[in-house]
Amino acid sequence: MRTRGLYIFFLLICFKAATQAQTSFPDVRITIQEKEKTVEELLQIIESKSGVSFAYSSNYLPKDQKISINAEQKSLSEILDEVLLGLNVEYQWIEQKVVLRKSAEKGSITHYTISGYVRDKVNGESLIGATIQVGDSYVGNITNAYGFYSLTLPAGRYQLKISYVGYESQEMPVVLNRSIYLDIPITPKFSFLEAVVVAPSDSNVHMEKAISNALEIDPNRVIGKPTALGEADLIKSFDVIPGVQIFRDGSTFFNVRGGDRDQNQMLVDEAPIYNPAHFLGLFSVFIPEAIKDVKLYKGNAPAEYGGRVSSVMDIYTKDGNFKEFSLNGSVGLVSARISGEGPIKKDKSSFFISGRRSHIGGIIRGLGAEFDQLYFSDFTGKVNLQLNQKNRLFISTFLSKDEFLADGGLRWGNKAGTIRWNHVFGNRLFLNTTFYTSKYEYNLIARRDIIWKNNINNASLKTDFIFYKDPGSTIKFGLRLSGHHFNPGNIEDFAGNQYDFVPKRNASESSLYFSHDKQLGNKWSLNYGFRLSSWTNFGRTIEYEISEDHQIVDSTIYDTRASYNEYSNLEPRLNLTWNFLHGHFLKFNYSRTAQYINLISNSISPFNNLEVWLPASVNIKPQLGNQISLGWIHNKKKWMIEVDAYGKVLNNQLDYTDQAQLLLNPHLEAELRAGDSWMYGIEGTLTKNTGKLTGWLSYIYSRSFRNIPGINGGRTYPTLWDRPHQFLLSINYLQSKRLNFSGTFLMSSGAPSSRPTAYYQYAGRTVPVYSSRNNSRLPTYHRFDVGMNTRLNKREQRFNHFLGISVFNFYSQKNSILESFNKIQKTEDSYVVPASTNSGTIVPTYRFLYSIVPSITYSFKL
């Protein structure tokens, strides 16, 4: 029995060895480098190099599919896995041959994920909004706000196409037989002057851009655009964007689709900026060289944005050069700017700093004006740390400051700081957690020892998730918690003693959101979601009870941290896109938004930024906005036509009574009235995307009205930003890589103005009577700007320097910014305030800011 057992055991070992001999691969390693070969051709090459025979039927091998392979000293099984990837073919080692046959598994397709960052090949910065397209299909993705992408695809071979404005398009073959992490470097077009907006010609790529509703603004265009006094200005570059109106000539205050200026949310690295103006509104606070990416949403913002009812301007600053140190700067008539960046540890961490200081104050003082301080300044800084493949940390700061000081004067400024942490869970779930704080302060210095101080502070913690379910499905969700503090204006002396006449306010805000981008086949795309926001007022403060006839009848004191008033709002969002013909898209959008903070100003001047911010509270309800739009886009290789029609209704809009008192008024809310506004319009744009000559032509018809009980006798009146007709033309001609010309022509209806309908005599003076608001208009606005930018060095090199020459208002049109009714005409060109009622007839007079303004700017980059 013992012998029989040993015999059986020996037979089992022999059988196992025989089985292994039939199924185990020989330990063969080969090197193979071939391009564009069929599967059968590659099998023959492998057979020749390895000495291993293959048995298969060519019927189930693709005959037209070309494969490239680059393998060095890899095993036979590794090479076969790569060659047969995605072909539904399996292999076995049987009787000294590799036998190929159709896979027995059906319906089970293995998916893998490719993820990573798209980066600038020269400086290593991640690129926001780069397009990754899978071959010529409708499958693809767009990098998020940190340059991250994720694509989950069936196992197989793919040709990725990567494109980004201002960069060379790139194609990259990918073998997806496992989940991989892949950073994609792409090469910038090196010419500083080649700031041409390039729209992808493929309709499916443009479909992705159309769905986002984001208007992307190239910072290089901002630097090259002709402006007054040659000062490159982000916000003033908006004056050629359909639906955006600069408030008056030379001002940086702007309105979007008929909304008020406080209804525009401005974010810098996710922190809010409350006042974008320098020099009483003449210039904006954003340093152009510090800007990495700008997106403008004209009312149809995704669910992750909230807090304003008209628009969102989302600015991301530069991360800093990961490869080498660089420096650039410029000097113009108004200011000097300088920026520096470089690696802290090469390819792992970087920094960026940028500063600006005006010198126009010295010129003004030289003309005889008496100012102790007259300047503005800005600073932007960022540190970028790549902790590892899964984690990144950003620390950024933003500062702006203005001082107009003589015996008294004005001082105001913004401060913002942000800490952001990125983490990637696996390869499809992206997390960003942000803590930010922001402060805006405005000081009116009456004397050397008395200051009227007004400020708004914010501190927030937010977390955002992006789940890349598959290339046609992306889910976003997140949460934000915020605290707000409002000082509507109180007195402080230089010793620091405070005298509170107006109650300070505190509030907490929370919001959560969900959105889903879903591609429905090759023709339809859907984005839907919601935002749920909540607002709570808490003490310590005083709230006044106001009667229906706007009289103070009682007051209540609330203790510190005691909550006493709450609001909550559901804000749905919907965006549907239909690619009904090749290159033709129809878009439908609906959005509802809530705004809990309000800017109160009783001045119509475009250069007066006296601002009082008030929160939603017992007597002030949140603003609510509902907007619907329908658009058509036709995209060709060189041309694009876009038409958008929209309608918008805003509830709980605030206006003030005539002669309202804003300074040191504890009962300011009794001066306010609430009602509704509505806007509608149509925007048409023809754009040329490519070639040496680029630009666009636009016509806009838009209206904006308001009706508030107790204002204008209860009658509807046009808002100050109601301008029915606008015509825009912007052209850019790239003569060579060293020379660029640009021109802009704008024409629009004049801004509304209130004209007196009668006069009466009082104390020897003629006094105008105004029976209705905004019952007239200023003259039609129009101007033409031209500019030239040239690179002074002949070839691209380490040190490049440039010269910009521009002429703002080329034909010297005197565009009115204000209209007055307190003067008589003395001579043909002379108007004076009359000394008595018998001096003459009161006539309207106009004030303008600019005639022709030539300027020159020198800049360098090394």
In short:
The chain has 862 residues and is mainly β.
Shape: elongated
Backbone structural class: mainly beta
Largest sheet: 22 strands, antiparallel, barrel
Unreliable parts: 14-22, 194-207
Percent range for helical residues? under 10%
Total DSSP helices: 6
Which percent band covers the strand fraction?
over 45%
Extended strand count: 57
Global Rg: 33 Å
Could you report the average pLDDT, rounded to the nearest whole number?
85
- How far from one another are the termini? 91 Å
Please specify the SSE layout and strand pairing.
Layout: H1 2-23, E1 29-37, H2 39-50, E2 53-55, E3 67-75, H3 76-83, E4 89-94, E5 97-102, E6 111-120, E7 131-134, E8 140-142, E9 148-154, E10 156-163, E11 170-176, E12 180-181, E13 184-186, H4 203-212, E14 214-217, H5 219-224, E15 244-246, E16 254-256, E17 264-268, E18 271-272, E19 277-278, E20 283-284, E21 291-297, E22 311-317, E23 326-331, E24 335-345, E25 349-358, H6 360-366, E26 373-386, E27 391-405, E28 409-425, E29 429-447, E30 450-470, E31 473-493, E32 498-499, E33 505-520, E34 524-538, E35 541-546, E36 552-558, E37 563-581, E38 584-595, E39 597-600, E40 612-615, E41 623-635, E42 639-656, E43 672-688, E44 693-707, E45 717-718, E46 725-734, E47 739-748, E48 752-753, E49 758-762, E50 765-769, E51 776-777, E52 781-791, E53 800-808, E54 816-827, E55 830-832, E56 842-848, E57 853-861
Parallel strand pairs: 2-5, 6-12, 6-13, 17-22
Antiparallel strand pairs: 1-3, 4-5, 6-9, 7-8, 7-10, 10-11, 14-21, 15-16, 17-18, 19-20, 21-22, 23-24, 23-57, 24-25, 25-26, 26-27, 27-28, 28-29, 29-30, 30-31, 31-32, 31-33, 33-34, 34-37, 35-36, 37-38, 38-41, 39-40, 41-42, 42-43, 43-44, 44-45, 44-46, 46-47, 47-52, 48-51, 49-50, 52-53, 53-57, 54-55, ...
